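Give me the fold.
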Amino acid sequence: MAIAIAVRDVIAKYTKKRVKIKWPNDIYVETRKITGMLIQNTLAANTLHASIIGIGINVNQTTFSKNAPNATSLALETGHTFSLYDLVEDLCQQVEQRYLSLKNSNNNDTLRELYLSHLYRFHESSNYQKADGTRFTGTITGISESGKLIIENSGASETFDIKAIRFLN
């Protein structure tokens, strides 16, 4: 959550459009994907030992493959080109700030609230597809303690792991 918020904040700094976190760790400008992140955690005795984080931001790219129909970039969203050096500097500062805040806090409720306040489709009725192909309309109501997405459907809440749910347009 801390890294997603940091990256979201950097993107939001450069565009006046709505910037959201699409669970678990993509960043969207309006309804278009601008950033993807991969996070691999190493556990030791049920404790987080290390994390490796890869962050891909579409910065100055103006054309995309047909296989990425909803992709966008900072250049497309703003009409400007950007210094990669300045962007990386901003990103490193935000990541460090969020990391230090997380490291020095015993209470992650504030982090969770901030993440939810920027969560794509949070409290919006939307269409989804389960891994088995079942489609349904539901409302994202939160994130579980273990990081799973909570969606309410017909009055019942269900939690979903990363590959168990697909967002539909």
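The mean pLDDT is 94.
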